[in-house]
Amino acid sequence: MSPTLDRRRFLSLLGCSAAAFPLMTPMSFAALPSDNRLVVVILRGAMDGLDALQPYGDPDLAGLRPDFDVGPAAGAIDLTGFHAMHPSLAPLRPLWQAGHLGFVQAVSTPYRDKRSHFDGQDILEAGTAGEVPPLTNRDGWLNRLLPLLPGATGRTAFAVGRDEMLILRGNAAHSSWAPDARLDLAPATADLLLHAYHDDPLFRENAEAALGFAGSSAEDEGRKTDALFAFAAAQLRQDARIAALSLGGWDSHRGQPRQIARGLDALAGGLLRLRADLGADWDRTMVIAMTEFGRTAFQNGTMGTDHGTGGTMILGGGALRGGQVWGDWPGLAESQLLDRRDVMPTRDVRAHAAWALHGLFGVERAALETTVFPDLDMGPSPGLLA
After folding, report:
1. By its UniProt entry, which Pfam families does this protein fall under (predicted)?
2. CA dihedral defined by 233, 152, 314, 168, rounded to 10 degrees?
3. Strand 347-348 and strand 101-108: pairing?
4. Domain residue spans in the chain?
5. Is the pTM of this model over 0.90?
6. Which pLDDT band holds residue 136 (cuts at 50, 70, 90)?
7. What pLDDT was estimated at residue 249?
8. What is the CATH architecture of 3-372?
9. H helices present in the chain, as ranges
10. Number of DSSP helices (H) and strands (E) in the chain, helices first
11. Which of 322, 326, 330, 339 has its CB surrounded by the most CB atoms within 10 Å?
12. What is the mean pLDDT of residues 296-315?
């Protein structure tokens, strides 16, 4: 493809990238008549679950990622003797020890094959069974949950940020607030720009210098995330009982070690801020951090990973029966990988979200498997709640 066509393609995709990887972090709230609280964090860009939760006990991991530092010997925090969490999550070790942190391995939405961020995020937030929701009349699984909660009144939904979140879109009314008007170039958009001009050495060199491969600094990213979690905590201490927010920048096609460390640093700081600000309400709170899909089991030629399938959920909160890793491990031998490239999903990510809603708010299983998450089989309870 010629540079001209590449540039035209980039300009056409830039708008899509801005929509799929929001420049600002959106957040939503719902007010419910319950003392239990739920925080859903969408990790946009496909977090690499094999890096966040490293199955270093699998003998095939090192061969798939020879240039990545994995396991306790490389500074990761040992959890089970088979799993270790990324060093950037080290501040969360006390939460793990207290049973307030856990992970779910080898999970995915029903979405397969095409591995599109746009479709993957839509399906994750819509909670559907694999079909991409239509552009019109889209609604999200948290919005479909609200009518099932008797007495839900007040601020039914509160969105924060430039972009609406599909997860709370629907018939339930909501307000919005933008905490930051800065127009930083999203990391995924910067990556797309550099890819489009890969064969134009002069532009690529100037673009790399201008972008600095970063967008905003890690310190800026941490401050933004801290502020968002602090704002969420303030609402949850009042009448809000459900908060949904998103964190971008997880699309690590190149330079993954630096990029994922930055994202996990910010996430860890946000979770600790949430716990500190919630005080005693932390004990009635569950956090679900989920992403649209995982990444390839093997590293690519630019010290990154590409779009995959099976991924990892990060769970937190005082209402969690944590200190454990849920889910069946499928293995990383070539014959055990999906399409010989991805972690094989062993359970629907929606099932764990559904069991959380059942335990926190008492929603009946039949309604969860049809109304909230259409065509879901929740399967046996994983025992997420304390």
Report:
1. DUF1501
2. -100
3. parallel
4. 3-372
5. no
6. confident
7. 93
8. 3-Layer(aba) Sandwich (3.40)
9. 3-20, 49-52, 61-64, 93-97, 117-126, 141-145, 187-196, 201-211, 218-236, 256-278, 349-361, 365-367
10. 12, 13
11. 322
12. 98
